[in-house]
Amino acid sequence: MERREAQLQPDRIRALQQALTATPEELFQLLLTPDPEILQALLKNPQLTEDHLLALLKRRDLPESLLRTIHLRCADTHSHRLVVALVKNPNLPSVLLRSLLPQLRLFELVDLCFLPGFTPDQRLAAERTIRQRLPTTPLGNKMALARRATAPIVAEILREADARLVGICLDSPRLTEAAVFQFVNSPQATAATLSMVARHQRWKNRPNLQQAILKNRQTPAIWFTLWLPKLPLATLNRLVAGRQQTPAQKRALEEELKRRRSTR
């Protein structure tokens, strides 16, 4: 056993020396080794380039210690390509991921949110970074975000209540009814944006949204005219008992209730 270990030691030394002195072409082959010690030695090879590191970061079995070393190298080289490749590696520790997210461009963050293998915590961190940038994001980019981003980001843009963005948000297949309901009940909703929800093919026939729209003081009278005759009596009674509506809206509700009673 001792003789075998004595034989292995020179082989080990030669392998580490090769990692330190390999040519650029040989390095690409050595990047495939499963041995973490050899990989650490490769990072010290003066022939190692950014292309080698980008190829290495495509591996999904890299140890955290190696990723931490590459992270330090990113800080030294200021390479944007390395930062992007590093944050896409699923084994990158969360604390390092959060430190790198601010360096990413807006739509690189969006792409991260849909990356296979990206954990819910990682996705939340990327979404938080996007939300922090929204106040200074140009309108055109917000329009693109409303089409491409995840449900929480689309909901955040919807809450801004900009009529130029509301329609795009409502078209998003990722937008949830809960987000629309929250928007309809918010003080930011205007007569124009409430009507956009009320007209939208996907949302206009949802009972919860109809009721929320009819409770909003900003809702135009046309929606009372169109919807009240079709409401279930129990829903109509609940709306009449509410206190949110304007006097004109309240009268429309009471008149519809009176008409129903007179036709019994």
Overview of this protein structure:
There is one protein chain. The chain is mainly α and 264 residues long. It has a domain at 63-133. Helices cover 67% and strands 0% of the residues. The chain is built from 18 helices and no strands. Helix 8 runs antiparallel to helix 9 and helix 12 packs parallel to helix 14 (191-199). The longest helix is centred in the first third of the chain and has 20 residues, at 2-21. It starts with a helix and ends with a helix.
Features:
264 residues; disordered N terminus; 18 helices; mainly alpha
Overall pLDDT metric: 93
Q: Roughly how many Å is the radius of gyration?
A: 30 Å
Would you report the number of β strands? 0
| Discrete helix count | 18
Residue runs with pLDDT of under 50 for 5 or more positions: 1-7
Roughly how many Å apart are the termini?
A: 99 Å
Q: Based on CA inertia axes, which overall geometry fits?
A: rod-shaped
Order of helices and strands: HHHHHHHHHHHHHHHHHH
Helix content: 55-70%
Structural class: mainly alpha
The major pleated sheet works out as: none
Strand content: under 5%
Write the layout of secondary structure elements.
Layout: H1 2-21, H2 24-30, H3 36-42, H4 50-56, H5 64-77, H6 80-87, H7 94-100, H8 106-113, H9 120-133, H10 139-148, H11 151-159, H12 163-171, H13 177-184, H14 191-199, H15 207-215, H16 221-227, H17 233-241, H18 247-262
